[in-house]
Amino acid sequence: MRELALTLESWGPAGAFLLAVLDSAGVPLPATVDALIVLVAATNPGLAWGTAAATVAGSAIGCMILFGIARKGGKLYLDRQTPSPGAGKFRGWFSRYGLLTVFIPTLIPIPMPVKIFVLSAGALGVPWRSFLAVIVAARIPRYFGLALLGRQLGENSGAWLKANIWYLSAFALLLFVALYLGVKIADRRRVE
Fold first, then answer.
1. What is the DSSP string of the chain?
2. What does the alpha-carbon distance between residue 24 and residue 9 come to, in Å, rounded to a whole number?
3. Which residues of 48-72 are buried (b: 16+ CB within 10 A; e: fewer)?
4. Angle between helices 32-43 and 2-11 (to 10 degrees)
């Protein structure tokens, strides 16, 4: 695994792009994309922004692959696996608030389950443009932030993230609540 990491690091933005496509398409690689961005930014600061941009593009492509797979067969699977009345409530909730559940874990560099929400978005018929916009809107600050962190702190980036995990978690929770309330307020205004 160490040799693979060194190879991908030597590829710079291309390695980060490839890893992001694989990770976002469903290959389980927890935190490796984040670590590679930080590593490339720390060892070669001149490649930091290109690596972040390549990773955003790779993640968007990988998520769209997984989203597309779920779009094709996921609805049928969900219909068979969740025939209960609660399934309709979940679908209604997800159509209204589901992209928030995609946005938050996609934004925060804390290992959170993203793939289940990507699969749900595809299976439940979320418009692909809205889905892609949410992915890109979340990945840009995450990956460029990690590149900045790598440029500024280098090898100490991982320690900084660990030391601030509770702050990042609290930020994620507050952001979710704020966005949730924003959607609720917008819904009420539409009804009035």
1. -HHHHHHHHHHTHHHHHHHHHHHHTT---TTHHHHHHHHHHHH-GGGHHHHHHHHHHHHHHHHHHHHHHHHHHHHHHHHHH--SHHHHHHHHHHHHHHHHHHHHHHHSSS----HHHHHHHHHTT--HHHHHHHHHHHHHHHHHHHHHHHHHHGGGHHHHHHHTHHHHHHHHHHHHHHHHHHHHHHHHHHH-
2. 18
3. bbbbbbbbbbbbbbbbbbbbebbbe
4. 60
Task: Please list the pLDDT of the chain residue by residue as tens digits (192 residues).
Answer: 567 666 777 888 999 999 999 999 988 887 789 989 999 999 999 999 999 999 999 999 999 999 999 988 776 666 665 556 556 666 676 777 777 878 888 888 777 778 888 888 888 888 899 999 999 999 999 999 999 999 999 888 888 888 888 888 888 888 888 888 887 787 777 777
Residue carrying the six token digits 């809107």: 137
